[in-house]
Amino acid sequence: MTVESPEEWNRNGTDESPSPVLELVRQWQSIGRPRPLDGRQKALSDRLVMPIVPNLADTLLQVRLTVDRDVAHGRLRFARRAHPYPKGYCQEITRTVASRLPAWLDNHDDVVAANLLAFQTAGGVFTEIWGDLRSQYFQNAIQIGTLYVDVANDTVDTTKPKIEILPLAESGFQSVTTFEHFLLVARRYWGGQFYANTVFPHLAPVLPIIHVAPSRKIALKSGLAPIFGENLINGCGPALAYLMGDQARHNAPPLEIADACRERMGTTGWCSDACREPDWDRLQHSFAHADATPGRYWSPNAFADLIQTVERVTKFR
Fold it and tell me: 269 is in which domain, residue-wise?
């Protein structure tokens, strides 16, 4: 998430000029969500995409192989992961293939290029999606009309084929929009321990989760951009409901984790109110401010500073 030009921001905006910050948060809210499978998309898919699925799989494999070759020869570098490429590089591979595909289609005169260009010109959906795959993984993929297209199918199990194409409705893919859903998958996929963020009351309305990875590194979490945006749009009510629920209230971090958070995240700025032990009154006070307009969480410069802090503390340290 990147924030620019905060000087004009406010949460409410006006009837004539919607709030830029609200528009930005709405963009985050919509990132990675599949588009509706309405009758028009189905008709376009049936006419232009379904007849070329085998050819499409081959085209996507060719584009994917350009990514693999560029990584192997050092022409393309991704941030290091815990495992050698391609394991764990689902997001990077998906984004790179999606960005390279238009140029590939422009430079090829075949049925895939003709049909996909006609499909997009007619308003067919071609978008990156992110969510939960079969309640086991966080998944980056591509939606092409009514199809779920995984161009990084080998990034969890490297023995699998690189490309998988399925009807989206039958793929087991679903959006993740709540903290509870996020945690259900995160515990299975990432491992480690997850705690309620009672350490940093100012940040709890936007980052209500502490994740201690198996490596013992620590990060604050809210899910990814869609959940972060959904929470903000709703005045941080979803984060409040999560933290005040029975499960979170009985899952405050032990003192050694609270101390590690304070040491690694710091105790200045948005982290200045760090608590070793839960202070539920202080937490609720922060949530009241988060829902207030105008207020600390929504004033132009404070919001920009908040997002910079979010970008810092959501990285494992």
Answer: 6-31+178-313
